[in-house]
Every structure is written in structure tokens, then in C-alpha cells.
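Chain A, query sequence.
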Amino acid sequence: MAAPLPGKPHLITFDTYGTLIDWDTALRAYVRALFARKGVDLDVSSFYRDWYYGHALPAVTGPFLPYRELLTTTLRTALAAADVPLDADDGHDFGDAMAAARPFPDAAGTLARLARHVPLATISNSQHDIIRESSRLLGDPFTYVFTGEDVRAYKPDAALFELVLEKAGVSPHDAVHVAQSQYVDLPRSVPMGIPTIWINRHGQTLADGTPAPTLEMPDLTQLASVLGFSPDGEQ
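Chain A, predicted structure.
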């Protein structure tokens, strides 16, 4: 059973991509432009799903690769699997598209309100030269920023969660984790006893065997209020 929300969290940790940053739109746009340049007639959405679920997601549990390399390698593998002819530079700037992805409209304001009262952290399956730009777009609200680069492992490995709790000096039940991914976040944060809010932006059904979160929300608009902070940031 998921841990209950604390009366007042001592730390709020966030997954960034898919939760705060709309990377899906940015990466689909990259693939669309790549196909246009190559004259490829493939459905972008179908290819994107094949890339993510068939190549990128499995790669985070494989041998560690820096995230830019992981993006390039998995995209090229997916292109080859779709019989798309490869050029030497295909995918080499995929990480730039991720870094340039825009925040969701509800993200920056919510983070700014919360940061007035409690330390915020991002623990991200990315790397620092990517998250640095994303954090800037969000208004640099984080006290702690950790990526897979710091622990040479990606969620759902426990290492990022353990690192941020240790550095913040906070026990799992006094933190709250806010995340969109039922594939790399919920399977780790919930069993660790971290109260977890699932930001289910796409109306997904929780997969069989995935631990249920403490709370499910469609977006971030009510997050500050749910955690005990009024919408205008006053406690």
C-alpha cells in the first residue's frame, strides 16, 4: 500500500520529462523533421511509440550509457528496424531536441509556489547538460538536481532516489515524489515508502503489477493545494 502524504513534506522530488517538460511533443517534432528530410513516409506517432517502448525504455535498465548516447543509439536502432536508411549524423542532435523541449503550462508557476516553502529536487533520467537547460526554462526552482550521470544508473534503479534523500537528509515518508512515468518512477518510489503523486497527463491505465501511487492527478494545477499550500503560494 502506498505511503500517505505527509502533513508537510520536507522535500518534493520531481521527474522532469513528461511531468514538467513536454518532451514528447519536442521529440516527435524532431522525428517528423527527420522523416521529412529523408522523404520517409512513416507514421510519426507509431514510430515514436516503437522507439520509446521498444528501444529507449528497455535501454535504461541495460548497461549504462550517457543519456545523449542512449538517445542516439536507440533512435538509430529504431530507424534501422523500420528499414529507414541511415545517415552518419542521424540522431546525433536528438539530445538537443530534448534540452530545448518546453515546459507544460502548469509547471513553472507550480514550482515557484512550492519552492517558497519547501526544497525541490529533480531526479532525472537525463544528463546535466540537458537538465541544465530544462531547469532554466522552468525558472531554476530546484535546490537539488541529480541525473543518471551522477550515479551511472537510471530509474527504476533506486540509486537516484537514495542519493537525493541522503543529500537532503530526509526520510522517505517525509518526502513526496511527483512523476508521470508508471514505468520508471512508480515501480521504485512506491516500494521505497515515498509518498508518490502520479501525474497522469495522458489518461493512462495503470499496468498490471505497477504499484499504485498515493494519489493520481491529471496535471499540476492543484498540486500546491493538495500538499497544503494555497494557490497564491501563501501557506
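The two ends are 29 Å apart (CA to CA). Residues 25 and 101 are 8 Å apart (CA to CA).
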